[in-house]
């Protein structure tokens, strides 16, 4: 293939992390456009493809029957030429703590445009830093994607944490004919705060209850009559062999918004601190009455770009991840995102989607 046949994507743009690659390859599969991604993860301390990105890339190669050049660890340049999107059962074993949810982040939009239902088994980390925790994918991403007419079923077979991974999940995806335009505009009022605080391995159950109680106390300090129900769980040994701890809090509003805030324990786990950090973040979202949280922002961009009709989200200040996702989506789909800071201080992001139809159904 000639150099001119590829759309060139600059992996060093703005955030310059793995997300440029994920979004570019997902869109390449869905639109049937060959892409060359250069300077991959140029803004990270160890640039190039890490395990997560390489496994995700090879998975998309299999899903879209693509030709690939440059799919080796630490590679900083990849050429990807997709064919048709199959839909099948796929297995990915990263043999590391590579984020399972980020591999799903890359594959999910593609499998929605497949010709038949798919099942995707991935082994790696279910709860790792700088990635959505698996609970966030179930409890925050899923209800947000319902606005686009998208559903999936996610089952955690085993939890896995940094450094050894060994978690495993199963994702079932039904294809769609098209994505509906998503509207995230009306916060309404806060109805419920829910969530889960977990610990595993040799960590005592009190870590989970410390997270739970600190988080609930903070919500009740501010809103004494607020319904707030956070579950404290110690994972059974057969579900999680290593040490790990974290919390996800979610806010549900009368306007149909679901916002999430998650923290994860590292070497020294302080349950109170984790609970306090998660609740502070969630409280900030609730106070600002935004409809989409800071991490969901960038994850919705690809769906807004592909939907039929005008999608809109009211959110907080745009993150670099979101600006980067917008740039990649505009480059590959030709749609335009409009960003406006409103007098309330909220940021309104709108986009007339491409109206991509599933060519495989
Ligand atoms: N606490 C969190 N909750 C939910 N989503 C998160 C959280 N932290 C990060 N994310 C999401 O994970 C993704 C991380 O993308 P990013 O490119 O930084 O990571 P990456 O692929 O691991 O690459 P790199 O190693 O280059 O940072 C983004 O979609 C971001 O919104």
Automatic annotation (TrEMBL):
One of its GO terms (molecular function) is RNA-3'-phosphate cyclase activity. It catalyses: a 3'-end 3'-phospho-ribonucleotide-RNA + ATP = a 3'-end 2',3'-cyclophospho-ribonucleotide-RNA + AMP + diphosphate. One of its GO terms (biological process) is RNA processing. ATP binds at residues 105, 295-299. Residues 186-287 form the RNA 3'-terminal phosphate cyclase insert domain. One of its GO terms (cellular component) is nucleus. The keyword Ligase applies. The active site is at 321 (tele-amp-histidine intermediate). Its EC number is 6.5.1.4. InterPro entries: RNA3'-term_phos_cycl_insert, RNA3'_phos_cyclase_dom, RNA3'_phos_cyclase_dom_sf, RNA3'_term_phos_cyc, RNA3'_term_phos_cyc_type_1, RNA3'P_cycl/enolpyr_Trfase_a/b, RPTC_insert. CDD domains: RNA_Cyclase_Class_II (cd00874). Residues 13-339 form the RNA 3'-terminal phosphate cyclase domain. Coiled coil: none annotated. Keywords: ATP-binding, Ligase, Nucleotide-binding. Belongs to the RNA 3'-terminal cyclase family. Type 1 subfamily. NCBIfam families: RNA_3prim_cycl. HAMAP family: RTC. This is RNA 3'-terminal phosphate cyclase. The lineage of its organism: Eukaryota, Metazoa, Ecdysozoa, Arthropoda, Hexapoda.
């Amino acid at each position: 293939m000639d150099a001119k046949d590829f759309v060139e994507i600059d992996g060093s743009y703005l955030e310059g992390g793995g997300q440029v690659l994920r979004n570019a390859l997902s869109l390449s599969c869905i639109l049937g456009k060959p892409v060359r991604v250069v300077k991959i993860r140029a803004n990270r301390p160890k640039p190039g493809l890490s395990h997560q990105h390489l496994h995700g890339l090879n998975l998309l190669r299999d899903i879209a029957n693509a030709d690939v050049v440059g799919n080796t660890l630490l590679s900083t340049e990849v050429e990807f030429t997709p064919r048709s999107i199959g839909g099948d059962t796929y297995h990915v074993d990263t043999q590391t703590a590579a984020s399972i949810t980020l591999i799903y982040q890359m594959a999910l939009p593609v499998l929605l445009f497949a010709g038949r239902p798919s099942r995707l088994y991935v082994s790696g980390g279910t709860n790792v830093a700088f990635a959505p925790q698996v609970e966030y994918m179930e409890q925050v991403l899923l209800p947000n994607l319902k606005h686009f007419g998208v559903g999936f079923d996610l089952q955690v077979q085993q939890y896995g944490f940094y450094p050894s991974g060994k978690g495993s999940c199963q994702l079932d995806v039904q294809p769609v004919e098209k994505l509906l335009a998503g509207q995230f505009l009306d916060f309404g009022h806060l109805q419920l705060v829910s969530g889960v605080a977990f610990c595993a391995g040799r960590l005592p159950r009190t870590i989970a209850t410390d997270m739970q109680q600190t988080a609930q106390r903070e919500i009740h300090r501010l809103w004494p009559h607020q319904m707030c129900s956070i579950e404290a769980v110690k994972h059974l040994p057969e579900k999680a062999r290593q040490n790990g701890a974290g919390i996800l809090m979610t806010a549900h509003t009368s306007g149909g918004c679901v916002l999430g805030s998650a923290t994860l324990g590292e070497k020294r786990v302080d349950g109170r601190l984790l609970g306090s950090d998660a609740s502070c973040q969630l409280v900030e979202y609730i106070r600002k009455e935004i409809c989409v949280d800071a991490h969901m922002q960038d994850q919705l961009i690809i769906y807004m770009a592909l939907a039929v009709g005008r999608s809109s989200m009211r959110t907080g200040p745009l993150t670099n991840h979101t600006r980067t996702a917008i740039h990649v989506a505009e480059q590959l789909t030709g749609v335009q995102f409009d960003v406006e800071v409103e007098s309330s201080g909220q940021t309104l992001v709108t986009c007339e989607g491409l109206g991509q139809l599933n060519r495989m159904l």
